[in-house]
């Protein structure tokens, strides 16, 4: 099995484990971002942002534990694909660039090692390929994470309208409106699956809808690119320092590599 395949599988497996552990925080973070405009409007009345922990507890109370993991299945698929694709292409490009650098070193051109700018280019290309292939998955994940919240807001708006109508209605209409309110309060957000999300995105925007936000996401590739450039440079120096002049050089341990592995 090639080193690229091994790195791709390792990246996918590690990404899945990390995603399961951190997914509740991601769900709350996504919902906080979608509510940002509403919070700004309330700022004038003295309302304060609630803590992440409080929002998690509130989410469990209103939607159960499943609410924290809304959209987890496609997210795991997206994480596995994203991490696998990134590490696979990163390793392929890394192997080729290292071979070129070694060949140049034998000819007396350079020291035979890869420079920082080359690491930056490798990470950027791998990140761009990853974004182009996996952006549709993350569009669906975000929609699934926020769908229940959107439906709940619609129900709350309907309740507010009914309460206003009740306050203005006569005695004969009040009982009818209260019955409608009781039925409305018993309603819960409808289940929202992956195929439904796929269909809605296509109906709204066609094929292009699956690549919404592509440009800013590609721009954000610079983040892991810089991260991996610094990582590879520091890893090379650390390995040289640990190994000294001994051959073969000792590989770095997982604890030594840990800072900055995730793209």
From TrEMBL:
UniProt subcellular location: Membrane
Superkingdom as given in the UniProt entry: Eukaryota
Species assigned in the record: Setaria viridis
Name of the featured protein: Uncharacterized protein
Pfam families, per database record: Mito_carr (PF00153)
Predominant location: membrane
The Solcar repeat ranges on this chain: 2-96, 114-237
Region named Disordered: 242-263
Membrane-topology annotation of the record: Multi-pass membrane protein
Keyword Cytoplasm on entry: no
């Amino acid at each position: 099995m090639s080193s690229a395949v091994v790195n791709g599988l390792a990246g996918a497996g590690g990404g899945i484990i990390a995603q399961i552990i951190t997914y509740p925080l991601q769900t709350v973070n996504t919902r906080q971002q979608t509510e940002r405009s509403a919070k700004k409007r309330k700022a004038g009345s003295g309302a304060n942002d609630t803590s992440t922990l409080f929002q998690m507890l509130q989410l469990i109370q209103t939607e159960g534990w499943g609410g924290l993991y809304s959209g987890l299945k496609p997210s795991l698929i997206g994480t596995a694909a994203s991490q696998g694709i990134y590490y696979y292409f990163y390793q392929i490009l890394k192997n080729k660039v290292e071979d070129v650098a070694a060949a140049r070193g034998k000819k007396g051109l350079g020291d035979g090692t890869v420079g920082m700018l080359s690491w930056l280019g490798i990470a950027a290309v791998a990140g761009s390929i990853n974004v182009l292939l996996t952006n549709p998955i993350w569009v669906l994940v975000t929609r699934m994470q926020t769908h229940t919240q959107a439906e709940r807001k619609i129900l709350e708006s309907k309740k507010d309208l009914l309460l206003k109508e009740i306050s203005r209605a006569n005695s004969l209409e009040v009982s009818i409106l209260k019955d409608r309110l009781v039925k409305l309060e018993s309603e819960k957000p409808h289940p929202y699956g992956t195929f439904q999300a796929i269909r809605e995105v296509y109906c709204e925007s066609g094929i292009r809808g699956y690549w919404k936000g592509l440009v800013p996401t590609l721009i954000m590739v610079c983040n892991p690119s810089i991260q991996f450039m610094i990582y590879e440079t520091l890893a090379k120096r650390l390995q040289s320092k640990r190994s000294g002049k001994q051959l073969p050089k000792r590989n770095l341990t997982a604890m030594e590599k840990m800072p900055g592995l995730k793209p």
